[in-house]
Amino acid sequence: MLGVRDVGLEWDEWACKTRAAAGQLTIRTDVARYPVWPFLGKTTGLLASPPCQAWSMAGKRLGLLDQPLVHQAVADLAAGRDTRAQLLAACKDERSLLAAEPMRYLHALNQHGQPEWVAMEEVPDVLPLWRQYAAILRSWGFSVWTGILNAADFGVPQTRRRAILLASRTRTAEPPPPTHAKLAEPDSLFGPGREKWVSMAEALGWGATDRPVPTVCAGGGSGGGPEPFPSGARKTLTDARDRGTWKPQNAPAEVKSRRKDARWGERGVARECRSAGGPDLACTAEACRWSWSLRSNNQANATVRRADEPAGTLFFGHRANECVWVAEPAGNVLVEDRPAPESIRITAHEAGLLQTFPAAYPWAGNKGQQFSQIGNAVPPRLAAHLLAPHLGKTLNPDDFTLAA
């Protein structure tokens, strides 16, 4: 989208295959073992997004215990001393020291007056380490900014907070101006306004209204939102919008006998519910409306957001981080007639859209491998805002067709 060629260094086999399918040049390697000399004299910018699992709230956070060792590694590498082997032996998580790896590249490149700019991303707890990088880069002549940014403020349908470092030799490093806010803000004398945060429903193409969407009618037809599915079904919410009616196998007799002439809520759209082998059913908005929410994981403190809100931070790669859609009543639900739909796992396609990847992005691997890639990625829309100024690009809303 930004018209710039990059070379990726990536350990994960399936991430490499995905990048290859997307036309991105990638070297599959251990970034801690790959030499720097191939890039000397050829590098304009350095992007670094070390693995976050050692530091993430979703993991054991052993990286916090290793933090003094990582700071020591950064200081040593900046001075041209490679003490990684000794420090790694003392780390409680072998991934922790990868957060110091960008300094090895930066030190070597700096000897050749490179790179022109630097952009780095990690979970919020890594901000003190980015500040250490910033002090070193400033001593080398860079302008540097570090801080925490919320991806939702840049049009990503996810309140994903990340520690960011931006540095430049040629311009003042500063964060990009946010384009979105929790509540829409009008234009003023002080600058352009901001749009309301993008909701999951908008990003997934479910339509955005002033009420939680999509809605579901138990046993409903194809005219509304996603449908409920029986236990064990492999269907998804998005499938429901595209494929129409689910027919329950054991509809109660009293449900089968409900009248057919009810209307579907304030829209006045006729809405019929069918049961397998039974007569047409009808339901009113007050009788069988359900709204969908996304639960970010299956832990007790999991973030739960309605579909008309941005998602919480999407974590994947561990069984405890299973992300599911859950249905909640929106009105006077007749529980005996309209049992709540069971929770439904989010699909990799939906997760990719919530990260602002294109709908047809060529994810490689099985579901678990795809989820791991998606959860580890920097949302492309956020990345575009971070990098555009350093690439001499100006973005406007028409440039963002990533999720189209």
UniProtKB/TrEMBL annotation:
Keyword terms of this UniProt record: Methyltransferase, Restriction system, S-adenosyl-L-methionine, Transferase
Top-tier EC class: transferase
Protein EC: 2.1.1.37
Family annotation (SUPFAM superfamilies): S-adenosyl-L-methionine-dependent methyltransferases
Domain of life, per lineage: Bacteria
Location of the region described as Disordered in the Swiss-Prot/TrEMBL record: 243-263
InterPro entries: C5-Methyltransferase, C5_MeTfrase, SAM-dependent_MTases_sf
Annotated active site: 52
Molecular function as annotated in GO: methyltransferase activity
Pfam families linked: DNA_methylase
Biological process terms in GO annotation: methylation
PANTHER family given in the database record: CYTOSINE-SPECIFIC METHYLTRANSFERASE, DNA (CYTOSINE-5)-METHYLTRANSFERASE 1
Family recorded in the similarity comment: Belongs to the class I-like SAM-binding methyltransferase superfamily. C5-methyltransferase family.
Protein name as catalogued: DNA (cytosine-5-)-methyltransferase
Organism per entry: Streptomyces violascens
